[in-house]
Amino acid sequence: MALDIVKLYISLISDFFKLSDMAVMASPSSNASTLPLLPANTHSLAIAHYLLRLLSEIQESVSELNGMEISSDASSSLKNLLESARWRFTDILVSAWLRDAQLFYYLEAWMPSPMDPSATHYLDQIELFQRQQTTTAFKLAGGIELSSYSLVKASKQLPIPQAFISKIVKAFMDALYAFLDGLVLQASDASPIATGKRLVSEAIPSIGANSLDLLDLTDSW
What we know:
- The protein is mostly helical.
- It has one domain (41-214).
- 57% of the residues lie in helices and 0% in strands.
- Helix 3 (44-67) packs antiparallel against helix 4 (72-103) and helix 3 (44-67) runs parallel beside helix 5 (121-140).
- The chain is elongated.
- The protein starts with a helix and ends in a 26-residue tail after the last helix.
């Protein structure tokens, strides 16, 4: 009966998150799109946060069930569930990560960086975004032991399977190319400031006068 309950739990989780064997999901023909259950207007930073929370809940449940020593069959099935969840959640994060990277140029507010007045704050934002998403992908891939406690405190670093490393490195590079495309767009006649679609950000505090206000930002030359 206990084994049947474990199998039902695995079935329900797998059905909800569309999990399958990692080798199947890693094949080129598999559908790596995000799940329809995600809110349409959410961003990848929020997705990353809640994916970590969800994976932490699944991992804690798996640890508790394994502690009951129901059977080797149950332990093997739970291990496969956790591996599939890690791969699927990494897929979801990567998809959202790249989507946001392609739109990131809209965040250029033309405010000088507090650390480097010769550059804009936008470059700092790119660095922070890449670091945050790479770190989250590392955690989802099994780089640390997740739990409610470890989400707020550093845990022991664990080895990551090569398949996850390749996926995360590719996502990082693809996002970087998307940022570079955005920089090229900012210097063209199709840039948001030239077309009147510039977003005014209130999240960046202004420190004194903005020296870039003296420039004609619509002139790409």
